[in-house]
Model the fold of this input.
Amino acid sequence: MLLSLPEDNALPRGAALHPIRVPGSKSVTNRALLLAALAPGISRFRGGLEAEDTRWMRQALVDLGLAFQEQDQVWIIEGGHRPQASRPLWLGASGTTLRFLLPWLALQAEGPVRLEGDPRLFERPLGPLLEPLAALGAAWEPDAKGAWLRPAPEPPIALDLTVDARLSSQFLTGLALTAAALPGGGTLRWTEVASPSYLILTTQWLHRFGCQALLEPGHWRLPGGALAARELDLPGDWSGAAAFLAAAAATGRALRLEPLDPADAQGDRAMVAILEAAGCRARWIGPQSLELEGPLQRGLDADLTDCPDLGPVLAALAALAPAPSELRGLHTLPLKECDRLDASAELVRWLGGRAEAIGDHTLRVAPGPSPGPRAAFDPRNDHRMAFAAAVGGLRCGGELQDPHCVAKTFPDFWAVWRGMLGC
Done:
């Protein structure tokens, strides 16, 4: 696929008059789907993300015996039942689906559950989540194509666990969602956690389903038996918005994006503050419409501990910035759908810049001259690397292999991108 761009390397004037609609949030949608499955009664959602990761979650819930319907773009889920698998669950490459479902299935499923998916899914870390589940009586039996999960003989009344969350906050989220559905709730403890903003996001959605979870540093208290069905509008995706915000920063034009919630707990909302610190201007036009205008006035200087998924897009933007940049807090990137730290450094070099990875946590980027013709960039079957390549292509052109990998979270990305470019 050719990464096309306007002849003057800029977005069309007047782009701010035509708001870009971002899709629903994967992080929120998969949390809301599982909470609806756990909460007794019928929940209804509007604005859920239609993409591969959420489709695997929805299908898994159906295969576990939950009633799911869609009427006039409203999702209807009847929850509150113990899961029982009717066939193997195919989870694709969705880490949230696997890590969110595992505790529920390990502690509540009626009978063994077969889990399958892309090979990379089972290469990503699971040990710190499986260890406390094994202590409660569950058994994990991996093989070449996936794994069998044999649930604990008796569901616990409550959880009281210390969890190693250094590699992923999703371990804690999965346990917290399950604990909220137990009669006695639970207490979770940790000393260090990756991407802590996602715990805040989980807490926000537990509250919306009736569980008044208390999140403190290193400690989560989860009242049990309080989950209730809800009717909710799900928010737009700050992660999906990131490439478009970067496009405005790279080209100096204004873009308007919606629907976005300025009070949302999604960690990638930090994109706005990062770009403002580098000289961009942002303002809210009404309650859900954000306008951002570039160009960057300086290099990027950001700690992404709370929002590591911004790393690839910001690395591409750093290659186009007027001065060197430093991105920190990237220690979870090698454990994502691909090694995003290595892939981001490769992308910077593909865009003509210089990239220096310092350990597994920092990327220093210096812009360079336009690279000219070169081989197509390989996003390594990772949607966020494809988004990042699109940002770099605004100034450097080039071609992209496997553009369809964006379907994981943003199936219409290229159509929306071309619309932004006026193509």
Q: What stands out?
A: DSSP finds 13 helices and 20 strands in the chain.
